[in-house]
Design goal:
mainly beta, SH3 type barrels, 2 domains, Type Iii Antifreeze Protein Isoform Hplc 12, signal, cell projection, 9 strands, elongated, 5-stranded mixed β-barrel, two-stranded antiparallel sheet, single chain, cilium, periplasm
Protein backbone atom coordinates (compact mmCIF):
# COMPACT_ATOMS: atom_id res chain seq x y z
CA UNK A 1 0.00 0.00 0.00
CA UNK A 2 2.80 2.37 0.93
CA UNK A 3 4.57 1.59 -2.39
CA UNK A 4 1.42 2.17 -4.39
CA UNK A 5 0.93 5.58 -2.80
CA UNK A 6 4.58 6.44 -3.43
CA UNK A 7 4.28 5.48 -7.13
CA UNK A 8 1.14 7.58 -7.54
CA UNK A 9 2.69 10.64 -5.94
CA UNK A 10 6.10 10.27 -7.60
CA UNK A 11 6.56 12.92 -10.28
CA UNK A 12 6.61 11.46 -13.79
CA UNK A 13 9.97 11.30 -15.48
CA UNK A 14 10.53 14.01 -18.05
CA UNK A 15 10.11 12.72 -21.56
CA UNK A 16 12.28 13.89 -24.41
CA UNK A 17 10.64 16.35 -26.74
CA UNK A 18 10.96 16.30 -30.51
CA UNK A 19 12.49 19.13 -32.44
CA UNK A 20 10.00 20.91 -34.65
CA UNK A 21 10.55 23.47 -37.39
CA UNK A 22 9.91 27.11 -36.50
CA UNK A 23 9.58 28.14 -40.17
CA UNK A 24 9.19 26.54 -43.57
CA UNK A 25 12.50 24.81 -44.25
CA UNK A 26 12.77 24.19 -47.97
CA UNK A 27 14.70 21.32 -49.52
CA UNK A 28 18.41 22.31 -49.79
CA UNK A 29 18.11 24.85 -46.90
CA UNK A 30 20.82 24.46 -44.26
CA UNK A 31 19.32 24.31 -40.78
CA UNK A 32 20.37 27.01 -38.32
CA UNK A 33 19.87 27.38 -34.57
CA UNK A 34 16.69 29.47 -34.91
CA UNK A 35 15.05 27.02 -37.32
CA UNK A 36 14.15 24.39 -34.70
CA UNK A 37 12.75 24.27 -31.18
CA UNK A 38 11.98 21.42 -28.74
CA UNK A 39 8.24 20.90 -28.52
CA UNK A 40 5.64 18.21 -27.90
CA UNK A 41 5.93 14.50 -27.41
CA UNK A 42 8.72 12.52 -29.04
CA UNK A 43 7.98 11.47 -32.61
CA UNK A 44 9.34 8.37 -34.31
CA UNK A 45 12.66 9.19 -36.02
CA UNK A 46 12.64 12.85 -34.97
CA UNK A 47 15.70 14.65 -33.65
CA UNK A 48 15.65 15.56 -29.95
CA UNK A 49 18.71 17.82 -29.67
CA UNK A 50 19.54 20.88 -31.81
CA UNK A 51 23.16 19.78 -32.27
CA UNK A 52 21.87 16.73 -34.17
CA UNK A 53 20.48 18.93 -36.97
CA UNK A 54 22.23 22.31 -37.04
CA UNK A 55 24.40 22.59 -40.14
CA UNK A 56 22.63 19.77 -41.99
CA UNK A 57 20.67 20.27 -45.19
CA UNK A 58 16.99 19.49 -45.60
CA UNK A 59 16.35 16.89 -48.31
CA UNK A 60 12.58 17.62 -48.29
CA UNK A 61 10.39 20.55 -47.25
CA UNK A 62 9.75 20.63 -43.49
CA UNK A 63 6.72 22.68 -42.46
CA UNK A 64 6.45 24.84 -39.31
CA UNK A 65 5.39 22.85 -36.27
CA UNK A 66 6.28 19.51 -37.88
CA UNK A 67 8.89 17.19 -36.36
CA UNK A 68 12.37 17.37 -37.89
CA UNK A 69 13.15 13.78 -38.83
CA UNK A 70 16.77 12.73 -39.13
CA UNK A 71 15.96 10.77 -42.29
CA UNK A 72 14.90 14.04 -43.97
CA UNK A 73 18.35 15.60 -43.44
CA UNK A 74 21.83 15.11 -44.84
CA UNK A 75 25.20 16.80 -45.11
CA UNK A 76 25.18 20.15 -46.87
CA UNK A 77 26.13 20.04 -50.55
CA UNK A 78 29.49 21.57 -51.51
CA UNK A 79 29.00 21.03 -55.26
CA UNK A 80 25.89 22.20 -57.10
CA UNK A 81 24.34 20.77 -60.26
CA UNK A 82 25.97 22.16 -63.45
CA UNK A 83 28.94 23.51 -61.49
CA UNK A 84 32.31 23.27 -63.26
CA UNK A 85 34.59 21.07 -61.16
CA UNK A 86 38.19 19.90 -61.29
CA UNK A 87 38.36 16.14 -61.90
CA UNK A 88 41.32 14.20 -60.51
CA UNK A 89 42.18 10.68 -61.65
CA UNK A 90 44.89 8.80 -59.76
CA UNK A 91 46.45 5.44 -60.59
CA UNK A 92 49.74 4.79 -58.83
CA UNK A 93 52.12 7.67 -59.59
CA UNK A 94 49.93 8.84 -62.51
CA UNK A 95 47.72 11.89 -61.82
CA UNK A 96 45.46 13.36 -64.52
CA UNK A 97 43.53 16.60 -64.08
CA UNK A 98 40.61 17.72 -66.19
CA UNK A 99 37.53 19.91 -65.96
CA UNK A 100 34.04 18.52 -65.77
CA UNK A 101 30.44 19.54 -65.18
CA UNK A 102 28.64 18.13 -62.15
CA UNK A 103 25.39 16.47 -63.25
CA UNK A 104 24.00 16.55 -59.71
CA UNK A 105 24.53 18.03 -56.25
CA UNK A 106 26.97 16.44 -53.82
CA UNK A 107 28.31 16.72 -50.30
CA UNK A 108 31.73 15.62 -49.06
CA UNK A 109 32.24 11.89 -49.63
CA UNK A 110 29.16 11.50 -51.82
CA UNK A 111 29.34 9.91 -55.24
CA UNK A 112 27.98 11.81 -58.23
CA UNK A 113 28.11 11.77 -62.01
CA UNK A 114 30.42 14.26 -63.74
CA UNK A 115 30.73 14.91 -67.47
CA UNK A 116 34.29 15.45 -68.73
CA UNK A 117 34.16 18.69 -70.74
CA UNK A 118 36.90 17.59 -73.18
CA UNK A 119 35.55 14.13 -74.08
CA UNK A 120 31.85 14.58 -73.17
CA UNK A 121 32.01 11.23 -71.36
CA UNK A 122 30.21 10.83 -68.03
CA UNK A 123 32.06 9.26 -65.11
CA UNK A 124 31.40 8.51 -61.47
CA UNK A 125 33.36 10.56 -58.97
CA UNK A 126 33.51 11.18 -55.22
CA UNK A 127 33.35 14.73 -53.87
CA UNK A 128 36.56 15.46 -51.98
CA UNK A 129 36.12 19.22 -51.47
CA UNK A 130 34.23 22.15 -52.94
CA UNK A 131 35.05 22.15 -56.65
CA UNK A 132 37.16 18.96 -56.61
CA UNK A 133 36.11 15.37 -57.37
CA UNK A 134 38.10 12.11 -57.44
CA UNK A 135 37.23 9.97 -60.46
CA UNK A 136 36.29 6.35 -59.78
CA UNK A 137 37.40 3.67 -62.24
CA UNK A 138 40.12 3.36 -64.84
CA UNK A 139 38.49 3.97 -68.24
CA UNK A 140 40.86 5.70 -70.66
CA UNK A 141 37.84 6.81 -72.71
CA UNK A 142 36.89 9.40 -70.13
CA UNK A 143 40.03 11.37 -70.92
CA UNK A 144 39.43 11.47 -74.65
CA UNK A 145 41.36 8.30 -75.56
CA UNK A 146 40.05 4.96 -76.83
Amino acid sequence: MKWLLLLILWPPMAQAESLVATRLIRATDVIGAGDVVAHGAPAQGAAIRPEQVIGLEARVAIYPGRPVRLSDLGPAAVIERNEIVRMVYRQGPLVILSEGRALGRGSLGEQLTVMNLASRQSVQAVVSSGGLVEVIGSSGAIWGGN
